[in-house]
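Weekly sync notes, structure subgroup
Attendees: PM, AL, DS (notes)

Item 1: joint prediction request from the bench team. They want all two components modeled as one assembly rather than separately. Inputs as received:
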Amino acid sequence: MSSFFAMGGYAGFVWPAYAVFFIVLAIDALAPRLQRRRLLQELRGRLQRRASRDRNGTSS
Amino acid sequence: MNALTLWFHKIGSPPTFYRIAGWLGPWCFGLGLLFGLVGLYGGLVLAPADYQQGDAFRIIFIHVPCAWMGLFAYFFMAANAFVALVWRIKLSEILAVASAPVGAAFTFITLVTGSLWGKPMWGTWWTWDARLTSELVLLFIYLGIIGLYNAIEDRRQAARAAGFLALVGVVNIPIVHFSVNWWNTLHQGSTVRLMGPSKIDAAMLWPLLLMALATHLWFFGSLLARARVGLLELDGGKDWVRTIALADGARNHE
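Output from the run, pasted for the record:
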């Protein structure tokens, strides 16, 4: 098992390469989720503002 | 309209595509992850060490599939950009713009893993070799496309400008691909070939091909997720998006 992690003396190059691979792809998968959440929040805010403006417009 | 065009229009309509992509995307991610783990087990555990490069060659199982994906994503982006510019199809604009960040991510991984591979094998992190330089240019083109798209306020005009830049950048693609044949520099030639036998043992080839399949699936998973966000943004004022926004809000408040 330790020889697996040692990678024949190349551990310092092989494992960072794999770490970069996993980290970048994890960010790639998370980014659209965060963008979607932010966008939908923004849209709801816009809808609420418009609804309250319409209410105020009819009452005055 | 005949049945095929009708079907095409239905698939291409934003709410339908949004729904299909929402179903298909997680499958792409899930299968990509599954094949990727099997491929990495084959590459890191089952495949023997290289006679010349020892265990350092194992970087190939991420470096080469990511390099292929950097080019594949560009092809996909340029093809969609072409369709978007000629026929003004909204969905193609969205798909072209959505593939840029995924392609940039894969190109970035290719450059970093290549650098980590080059240090023990060539004795240097970086050299202005033809392949390395053209790959770096590819990353800059991706970043330029993303930057241009975000710099323009109007989403459709931004997509057209970015698509135009994507088509101009196509000239770099054959340079990346053929650079190892045209200039005889540090970077080694192709190991896996579509035409003729590959210069690699079967025990190393199958994990590599499985990783290529996994990264393709991952690309489409990420592409569909990004295209969904793009459609929501573009159709922000429409009823179907309003329904989704309100349903999402109700779910968050529970």
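Discussion: Chain B has a mean pLDDT of 91.
Action: AL to compare against the crosslinking data before next sync.
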